[in-house]
Structure formats: structure tokens, C-alpha cells
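Re: [ENG-882] Designed sequences occasionally contain unexpected residues at chain ends

Forwarding the minimal case from QA. C-alpha cells:
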């Protein structure tokens, strides 16, 4: 290997050139590790062809929820348990507690709740009485709810063997996830405005099952408004009615439940990455796998056995 000495003019130039290249490499590595380079979400997808296995294996166990008294509140839920009994089947559905809000009471029937395999084409048609593919059940009860963490579980009772594809989703055993690991969401995003924003278009008022993908960026810092401390921060796209939907790892295991997206100063959903006090940039937050398992675990003892 040729050696360059600093004693000569040519050797001096080579020495400084090599030093400059090393410095550029160090700066490049530091730049790539900066938190503001979190990968932005890529929008919503509804194509069934070419679905990632993490999405396709869980597609049918995610449902659309609506609650109405004077107005309609909508969200997403997913099956966490299914119990076959003599003459009936009990299906337990998890969602975010802020979806039903004060429209249902724990331990009581919730007659204003509707569960859809697929919703009507848009919110306007729902308000006009369109039913979509509604799941017919005998009774719906809010069995448990919590504001922190933002979780709720409903039980619906259907005819024995009805809707066999509504199967419990698998919760991750370890709940482990690494920074920048791929994450996936299934839900029913809804918006009152037509979205383009460099993403696949979501029409105004349209409601349909869609999926999005992003990465895990970190945890919600202490004192952050709009999400529970310790919740998972992700770059996946979400809209209002994604609340309560499942968050998956690349294996298709549930690692969280969607609780919030983030808003810009004008009150609209923020489609750039929101910067948190700990420097992390993300688009949405999900109740952690650990809290979800603890919440559902308490039901295992009292209801699921």
C-alpha cells in the first residue's frame, strides 16, 4: 500500500483529502441517525392483492363500530376472544374508550351500538339509515372501560357459529419491538375532506377497510397530552375512525391499540410527523401491548373462562 507523507506537497494534499473524507463519513452517519429522519407514512391502501402477510392474516377480524344517540360516533375494533356456548356465541371486541365515550355504561346493554363487517359507502348514507354489512347480534354489553389506558371491551352475543371468520387476533407474547421496525394498521379511516397530501386519495365521507404501514419510533414522553405515557409512537397514517384499531408487527401479532393521531395548530390532522418533547417524530400513538394484555388479562379471569 502506498504511503503518503506530509513532508511533500502531494503528500500534504492526500492527507487533507483523506481527513476530509473521513469527516464527511462521520457527519453522514450522524445525520442518518437524527430523529427527524423518521420515515413518513405512505398513506392508506385498500388493495387486497399483494397484502403483507401481517395484514392479510388479520383482515377479517377488524370491524367498524358506530354509536349514535343524537349524532354518530365511529371507530374501529378488533376481536380479542370468541366463546362458543350452547345456542350462542360470545364475541369480545376491543376498541379505544374514547370511541363510545359516554354513549354506553359498563355492565349495561348498549343498544345504540352497531358492529359492521363492512360499513355503508359513506357517513352520509349511514345517517340516512343505510346499514352496510351489519353483524346481527342479540345483545351488546360494555364489559370494561378505562380512560388511562384508553381501552374498552364490548361483548356481543350472536347465533352459535355465526360469522366464523371473526377470530381473536393474536397478541404478541413478548411485546418486544425494535426502533424502526415495520408496523401495520388495519382500520376504517374516515375524513370529512378529500385527502391527497402526496398519499393515495381518501374521498370525503368515504368509509372502507384500509391498511397503512410505518415504523416504530419510540414511546410517548411523560406529560404528553392526547396519549397515555408509555404508549407506542409510530409513523403509520391514521384518521379519526382508526381509533381502536389494532397495530401489528411484521409477524402479524398485535402490539398495540390505536388511541390517537396528532393535530396541527388549525385543529386538522397533522400529516407531517409531529415532534415530541423527547425529540421523536411520529404520526400516531397506540396503547402498548403490555397495557393491552394486562387489561384483557383481567377479563380472562372473570369472563373468558
Amino acid at each position: 500500500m502506498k504511503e503518503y507523507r506530509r513532508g511533500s506537497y502531494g503528500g500534504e494534499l492526500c492527507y487533507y483529502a483523506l481527513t476530509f473524507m473521513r469527516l464527511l463519513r462521520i457527519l453522514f452517519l450522524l445525520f442518518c441517525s437524527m430523529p427527524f429522519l423518521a420515515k413518513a407514512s405512505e398513506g392508506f391502501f385498500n388493495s387486497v392483492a399483494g397484502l403483507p402477510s401481517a395484514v392479510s392474516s388479520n383482515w377479517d377480524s377488524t370491524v367498524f363500530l358506530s354509536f349514535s344517540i343524537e349524532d354518530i360516533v365511529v371507530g374501529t375494533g378488533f376481536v380479542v376472544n370468541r366463546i362458543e356456548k350452547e345456542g350462542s356465541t360470545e364475541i369480545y371486541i376491543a376498541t379505544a374508550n374514547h370511541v363510545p365515550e359516554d354513549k354506553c355504561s359498563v355492565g349495561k346493554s348498549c343498544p345504540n351500538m352497531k358492529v359492521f363487517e363492512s360499513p355503508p359507502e359513506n357517513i352520509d348514507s349511514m345517517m340516512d339509515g343505510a346499514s352496510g354489512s351489519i353483524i346481527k347480534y342479540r345483545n351488546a354489553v360494555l364489559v370494561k372501560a378505562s380512560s388511562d389506558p384508553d381501552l374498552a371491551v364490548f361483548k356481543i352475543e350472536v347465533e352459535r357459529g355465526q360469522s366464523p371468520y371473526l377470530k381473536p387476533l393474536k397478541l404478541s407474547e413478548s411485546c418486544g419491538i425494535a426502533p424502526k421496525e415495520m408496523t401495520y394498521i388495519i382500520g376504517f379511516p374516515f375524513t370529512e375532506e378529500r385527502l391527497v397530501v402526496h398519499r393515495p386519495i381518501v374521498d370525503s365521507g368515504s368509509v372502507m377497510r384500509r391498511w397503512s404501514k410505518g415504523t416504530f419510533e419510540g414511546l410517548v414522553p411523560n406529560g404528553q397530552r392526547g396519549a397515555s405515557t408509555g404508549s407506542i409512537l409510530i409513523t403509520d397514517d391514521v384518521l379519526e375512525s382508526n381509533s381502536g384499531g389494532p397495530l401489528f408487527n411484521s409477524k402479524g401479532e398485535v402490539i398495540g391499540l390505536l388511541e390517537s393521531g396528532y393535530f396541527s395548530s388549525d385543529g386538522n390532522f397533522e400529516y407531517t410527523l409531529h415532534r415530541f418533547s423527547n425529540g421523536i417524530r411520529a404520526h400516531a400513538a397506540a396503547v402498548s401491548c403490555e397495557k393491552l394484555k394486562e387489561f384483557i388479562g383481567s377479563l380472562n379471569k372473570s369472563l373468558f373462562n
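QA comment: On inspection the terminal residues look reasonable. The first strand starts at residue 62 and ends at 68. Proposing we downgrade this to a documentation issue.
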